[in-house]
Structures are given as structure tokens and as C-alpha cells.
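Our preliminary data section would be incomplete without showing what the modeling component actually yields. Below, a chain of 87 amino acids is followed by its predicted structure, encoded as C-alpha cells that our downstream tools consume directly.
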Amino acid sequence: MKNVLDILKERGLLENVTSPDVHKFVESPVTVYAGFDPSSDSLQAGNFVTIMVLAHFQRCGHNVIGLIGGATGMIGDPSGNPPSVTC
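Predicted structure:
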């Protein structure tokens, strides 16, 4: 199976990495995550890119976690009010 970083480069989703060791690191399953702000009624188009990257990691056998809410909703929130999230 191809390395997930090669796939992301082919698709234009990855330009550069901080260390060449990252390529070796993702040869075995790793856990990756991304957080999304729950204060909006819907996700924006920019979130789709992150979701697609997560999907590529998952297809290559990695563990994927998508976080919605909690501290993710408080980052950059100027109101000072905690987000209301219902399950």
C-alpha cells in the first residue's frame, strides 16, 4: 500500500513536512485528529479539505479522530461564553 503522505502530495494536499522522518513514521498505523468548531450551523468548504485528509489517513489504515465541541469551540470565541453542545 502507498504511504499516505505520497497520496496527499499527489493530490496537492501536502506541500512540505517539518521532518523527513515523518514519512517513515506514518508507515505504521498512527492516530491523527482534527477539531471542528461547533458554534456554526454547518461546516464550511475549508473544513472539507481537512475531512478529506482524515479520510485518506483512514483508508491507509491509520486511526482517525474527528473532534467537535469542547475546547475547540472556545478557541477564538470572543464572547467568553462556553459553547452549548447537546448530544
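The chain has a mean pLDDT of 83. The two ends are 37 Å apart (CA to CA). Preliminary results of this kind motivate Aim 1 of the renewal.
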